[in-house]
Amino acid sequence: MKAIAYTQHGLSIDDSRSLVDIELPKPTPGPHDLLVEVQAVSVNPVDTKVRSGSPTDTPRVLGWDAVGIVREVGSEVTLFQPGDDVYYAGSITRPGTNSEFHLVDERIVGRKPASLGAADAAALPLTSITAWELLFDRLGILENGGKGESLLIVGAAGGVGSILTQLARQLTQLTVIGTASRPETQEWIRALGAHHVIDHSQPLTEELARIGLKEVSHVISLTHTDSHFPHLIEVLRPQGRLALIDDPDTLDVVPMKRKSLSLHWELMFTRPMFETSDMIRQHELLNRVAELIDQGVLRSTLGEHFGRINAQNLRRAHALIESGKAKGKLVLEGF
């Protein structure tokens, strides 16, 4: 089968060897596995981080988002059958989705939204899981809850921010404030439903004051948390909650004590990586997102379609992710 891999970590994405087209044997499903024929994938920052920083002795296939058709099922599979249309983000401990066929545990797979094509659906799994877990599992917001409270989303125009903004606006009563520094990304966040948009390249206290807010009850920081951290502590109200997903070299959390602030870290791979007892929650929440998409409550966050799934197009997508200028999700479709 066709696949795209890296064989040497740390190469510049401008180097044609950074991602290469290869051939691999078609895999065989284990007891809980689905063998999925991949139709579309999307690219996430985790792809670029693994390619840059994780050494490998053998070709490593990246990709943690896929839409496809179930072709075979393992002996203990009960949730799906051959012919089903599915979408999922997979596990970072297994080969990625940038291949014609892919194995994934059924417990982290959802029914593809019926109203979306493969490309639009491929934009959703990893970011939807991350955003859902951030909002409802980590911060403990209740659906239709949060009345009188506020959520500041730092970096709201990216993949996670794009679906998080929608979830917070549509499923809670929070006042949603998104940050972006460019006119086109600011307009994108407004279109996704944010009540307010502020510029994170300016002092956050001044930007919040501009929209009539002194403080916020919740912050989700999706990028550059280390540089924003002192300001986030300043704008959080006493007993507020801060969640993040990025990888600061270090964080001095001691200043959080004075306000009794809490810190929550989110990694959507935790459940599949450790095969937690509630691993099936990702199956359930992906199905819920599919329902909300089909009901018109949520929309796809596809930002740009990069053509067919091959090394050349994936290198272009990785380059845009690394530039920090991506809006929404970058999707590739078909082999």
UniProtKB/TrEMBL annotation:
One Gene Ontology molecular-function label: oxidoreductase activity
InterPro entries: ADH-like_N (IPR013154), ADH_Zn_typ-1 (IPR014182), ER (IPR020843), GroES-like_sf (IPR011032), NAD(P)-bd_dom_sf (IPR036291), Quin_OxRdtase/zeta-crystal_CS (IPR002364), Zinc-ADH_QOR/CCCR (IPR051603)
Cellular localisation: Cytoplasm
Keywords for the protein's UniProt record, in alphabetical order: Cytoplasm, Metal-binding, NADP, Oxidoreductase, RNA-binding, Zinc
GO cellular component entries: cytoplasm
Family: Belongs to the zinc-containing alcohol dehydrogenase family. Quinone oxidoreductase subfamily.
PANTHER family: QUINONE OXIDOREDUCTASE (PTHR44154)
Protein's UniProt name: Zinc-type alcohol dehydrogenase-like protein
